[in-house]
Structure to design on (531 residues):
């Protein structure tokens, strides 16, 4: 077969250094960019096979998100814009680790297991972030696709959620939108402008937002989008990539972990600010008060704002739809308490990693999912979307119901349902605050976060820790959970858990308690128990 000869030939241009082993982790492959060329080529091959079996377009995104500039990575996107299925994650690992002389055998093994029809056409969409290594690495992906005779479309510089969106649009024959970056801006901005029209008395001052672009792709794309927003949002962009280094002392991950503002940003008291991460799939908000104290509004606060807004609209529209919020063990206890006991919405907890949250959210009419780190979106079931649309089109409705239904409809259109999207989340949050006439301080005051602390512990092998109950309890090593339980009892309103990281060789420790000192002490004591 000539295609295998072509694979052999091309793989020689992208050789694997012998002995190098990587795993397709929570967010694909991610490591120093120098080690990734062969992996990129092979992911091009794998995406082509995946496209043939699904008879649909598959996406490949070259990015390492919030990692430092020297790193890079790759993620595969399935037909509806979701993360690639777990079986194919296993294939990805196998193909990436096959030694040079075993590559064809590894490839043929997948073809056989999945009964891939090699005469089926294949199409792969490729995107990349702004890292120096991304151009070369995305070319390696394209080489992989063409070696197996697949067709590719290179979207060039796009955010991760934009690529997910393109894949979904393509495979739904345009029902979700047009598979172009321009189409994405149009859909989101039109919905945003319609939502904004419902904000009466909104001053120019209230339409102002400072955005930290993490010196990455998000900054570029916010610039491109701005003209579509018709002055309904005034953005001051910082860390736009013109001077600073990607993710260095800035971006959503830095702000969340360090609990302080990014460098390179001017912050005036009370002003709304937000940070994207390096591939613009995460967002966190913050402000500094009149005393100069920094306040962070993370993914939990975002989930609360969005779910409150949606629940109120459902009530006004008289729609009986089941809404749930999906969180992880990292969600602040105060947020869970507020959602369950004050808001009375269903709350689910899943393991860390977007695919777990996404999956859980799909089980409800409306599933709002957010990780505390700011990655999240809202999913509407097909039935829910249809009910909302019917109501919005029903001309005999009284004003309040009609208004609520139209707001819901535009909310659906401003959201990127394929994956968490900093730009889309930003537009939705800005619209909600404007409609509710809410300041960032008022949003922050919905509930008060419990003080918390995260630590990481280096151990020789973090896999000795095994967890259950959505990572909230340790089942091994023996005695660890009992030790944590004893420590937690010493503090008021306390909670703590440990879990092995899926992206680094460390164990993560989380603790929260009534005071910051207690949270710090508890985290420290639990990390000692991990040794
Ligand atoms: C990945 C995940 C993110 C998760 C993080 C946890 C995706 C797209 N990204 O970045 O959701 O919060 O890993 O990292 O799933 P950890 O396992 O090292 O704590
Ligand atoms: Zn990211």
């Amino acid at each position: 077969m000539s295609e295998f000869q072509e694979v052999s030939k091309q793989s020689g241009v992208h050789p694997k250094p012998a002995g190098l082993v990587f795993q397709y982790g929570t967010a694909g492959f991610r490591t120093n960019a120098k080690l990734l060329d062969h992996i990129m080529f092979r992911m091009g091959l794998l995406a082509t096979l995946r496209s043939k079996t699904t008879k649909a377009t598959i996406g490949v995104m070259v990015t390492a998100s919030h990692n430092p500039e020297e790193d890079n990575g790759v993620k595969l996107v399935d037909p509806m814009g979701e993360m690639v299925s777990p079986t194919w994650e296993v294939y990805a690992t196998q193909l990436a680790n096959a030694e040079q002389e075993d590559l064809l055998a590894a490839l043929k093994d997948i073809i056989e297991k999945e009964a891939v029809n090699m005469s089926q056409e294949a199409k792969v969409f490729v995107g990349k972030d702004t890292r120096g290594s991304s151009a070369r690495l995305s070319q390696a992906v394209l080489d992989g696709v063409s070696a197996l005779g697949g067709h590719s479309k290179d979207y060039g510089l796009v955010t991760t959620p934009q690529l997910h969106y393109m894949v979904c649009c393509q495979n739904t024959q345009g029902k979700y939108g047009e598979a172009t970056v321009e189409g994405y801006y149009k859909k989101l901005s039109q919905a945003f402008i319609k939502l904004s029209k419902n904000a009466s008395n909104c001053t120019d001052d209230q339409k102002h937002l400072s955005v930290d672009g993490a010196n990455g792709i998000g900054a570029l794309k916010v610039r491109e989008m701005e003209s579509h927003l018709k002055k309904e949002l005034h953005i001051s962009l910082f860390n736009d990539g013109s001077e600073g280094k990607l993710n260095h002392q800035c971006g959503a991950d830095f702000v969340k972990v360090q609990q302080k503002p990014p460098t390179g940003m001017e912050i005036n008291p009370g002003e709304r600010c937000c940070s994207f991460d390096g591939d613009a799939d995460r967002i966190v908000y913050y402000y500094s008060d009149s005393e100069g104290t920094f306040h962070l509004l993370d993914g939990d606060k975002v989930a609360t704002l969005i779910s409150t807004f949606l629940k109120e609209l459902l009530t006004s529209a008289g729609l009986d739809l089941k809404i749930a919020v999906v969180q992880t063990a990292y969600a602040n206890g105060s947020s869970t308490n507020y959602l369950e006991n004050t808001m009375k919405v269903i709350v689910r907890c899943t393991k860390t990693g977007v695919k777990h949250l996404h999956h859980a959210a799909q089980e409800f009419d409306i599933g709002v999912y957010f990780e505390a780190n700011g990655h999240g979106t809202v999913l509407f079931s097909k039935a829910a979307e249809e009910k909302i649309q019917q109501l919005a089109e029903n001309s005999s409705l009284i004003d309040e119901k009609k208004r609520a239904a139209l707001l819901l409809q535009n909310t659906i259109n401003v959201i990127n349902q394929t994956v968490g999207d900093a730009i889309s989340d930003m537009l939705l949050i800005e619209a909600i605050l404007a409609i509710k006439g809410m300041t960032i301080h008022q949003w922050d005051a919905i509930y008060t976060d419990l003080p918390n602390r995260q630590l990481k512990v280096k151990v020789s092998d973090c896999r000795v820790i095994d967890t259950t109950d959505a990572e909230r309890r340790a089942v091994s090593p023996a005695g660890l959970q009992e030790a944590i339980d004893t420590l937690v009892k010493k503090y008021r309103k306390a909670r703590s858990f440990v879990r092995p990281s899926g992206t680094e060789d460390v164990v993560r420790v989380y603790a929260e308690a009534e005071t910051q000192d207690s949270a710090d002490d508890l985290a420290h004591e639990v990390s000692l128990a991990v040794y």
